[in-house]
Amino acid sequence: MDDLLAELDRRLAAADAALAADYRGDRGVRQPIHTVYVPADRYDVRTVGDWGAQARAALDEYGGSAADLAKVLDLPDEFAADVYDRVRAKLEREPIEDLRIDFEDGYGNRPDDEEDAAAIAAAHTHPGTPFYGLRIKSLEAPTRRRAVRTLELFLKEATITDGFVITLPKVTSVEQVDAMVLVLETLEQRYDVPRLTFEIQVETPQAILGADGTALIARMVKAGGDRVTGLHYGTYDYSASLGVAAAYQSMEHPVADHAKDVMQLAAAGTGVFVSDGSTNVLPVGDAVHDAWRLHFRLVRRSLARAIYQGWDMHPAQLPTRFAATYLFYREGFDQAARRLRAYLGDGESGYLDEPATATALAAFVLRGIECGAIDTTEFDTTGLAKLARRAVPES
């Protein structure tokens, strides 16, 4: 038998190594619940504070109390007051979790001296958010030089801190991911900056299905290795590329769901986060409540589909981002806590959960704690972190 086991180890050594290299598992870090994109020419030291103030003003005007917000969003009575209080506190404490300084579509094509100045100015202004970064232009031929120049100018001037990431848009080939790795390696050496990571923005059909019939996004994740930290879905570029009429372009269109299903499969087990896109229906003018209800529903839909992050494009979307997220975790917490305690031998839950489900339950509670939906006093976070294979979150 020892000879057989030795032979199995020999035969499976390459497969074992490939599995460990390609599927590294949870990175053990917090995932932001949203990313806010701000055009580079509109970004300065006041941006985060201004967004928070505008979001609070929108909440006061259009959802002035817990009862008012519950009526607009049809919040369950038992959660309405708690969700409202948590949303209000979040908008005061941390209105933006992840901010992306945008040099791509939100910024457009500008004269070189203008974009140079914007890149340098951005480098000298840290937003103070837990996560931040910049979206450069794509590595397609027409914008390649401009993309690299903007990134270089930023890195030359900036002090890079934890939570920094670069967003690479409109990726159409595995070779572009290889090229991005080369860019980052070169700039790290030139400017002595910490190891750089990037997100792949899925906005083109080529990322989902290559000309050879393969799912290129999986190959892109592999090519980027541990430098790739996220896959972000681009609602409107992707939908338009497939010929979806403007009136029907949405995060819940079937083509969007297919793309995100492929993204989730490609990212599963790799430690790469998946983010949904945005809605361009803004809560402004006479349509605030309708836009809020739409945004609230879309965020809830993404969460139910195990996509825990999305984009926000306007300050008045923040109240519904947080309300939808907090309701999701508050509604699910009691059952998750009972099942976890039962799994750990403390009581009964009516479920016979396997280790993988216990890990998922623990991750659910941890996500709730990290965004402010659940308090650390509500569960033993030490045991929780061990189950989820994560570091203990800060309260």
Short description:
With 395 residues, the chain is of the alpha/beta class.
Number of helices: 15
The description of the largest β-sheet is: 8 strands, parallel
Q: Name the average pLDDT.
A: 94
Total DSSP E strands: 8
Descriptors for this entry?
single chain, 395 residues, alpha/beta, eight-stranded parallel sheet, 15 helices, 53% helix, 10% strand, globular
Q: Would you give an account of this structure?
A:
The protein contains 15 helices and 8 strands. The chain has helices at 2-22, 47-62, 66-73, 77-93, 112-123, 144-157, 174-191, 205-208, 216-224, 235-241, 254-267, 288-304, 318-343, 355-371, 381-388; strands spanning 34-39, 98-102, 131-135, 164-168, 198-202, 228-233, 273-275, 310-312. It is an alpha/beta fold and 395 residues long. The protein has an 8-stranded parallel sheet with strand order 7-6-5-4-3-2-1-8.
